[in-house]
């Protein structure tokens, strides 16, 4: 039978070699934390680092300048895109005014 856990918590587990377990216990002791506290803090810190790194966009200086130039001076829209935008705005305006559009 497993110990009861709060509905707001989940259990995780890992199997590690004895030397890894000894190292983790020692590090936890040195920080004044329990092994569980130490593992959760270390894993959370690493998870946040990975998420931040993966969400960041990395551009070369040349690409960054090109991106900024495109944002400040966007190219003209293709005719098909302009027509689609116009159709969308018309449909949206008709829907907002209660027009019952049927395809």
Secondary-structure-derived class = mainly alpha
Give the biggest sheet: none
Name the beta content range.
under 5%
Label the overall shape: elongated
Kindly describe this structure.
The protein is mainly α. The chain has a domain at 13-74. The chain contains four helices and no strands. The chain has helices at residues 18-31, 35-55, 61-72, 79-96. The termini are far apart.
Report a brief summary of the structure.
This protein is mainly alpha-helical and 103 residues long. The chain contains 4 helices and no strands. The chain has a domain at 13-74.
Secondary structure blueprint with pairings:
Blueprint: H1 18-31, H2 35-55, H3 61-72, H4 79-96
Helix pairs in contact: 1-2
């Amino acid at each position: 039978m497993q110990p009861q856990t709060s509905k707001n918590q989940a259990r995780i587990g890992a199997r590690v070699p004895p030397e890894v377990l000894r190292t983790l216990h020692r590090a936890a002791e040195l920080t004044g934390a329990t092994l569980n506290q130490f593992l959760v803090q270390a894993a959370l810190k690493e998870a946040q680092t990975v998420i931040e790194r993966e969400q960041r966009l990395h551009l070369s200086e040349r690409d960054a300048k090109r991106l900024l130039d495109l944002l400040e001076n966007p190219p003209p829209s293709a005719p098909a895109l302009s027509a689609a935008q116009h159709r969308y705005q018309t449909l949206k305006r008709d829907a907002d005014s209660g027009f019952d559009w049927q395809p």
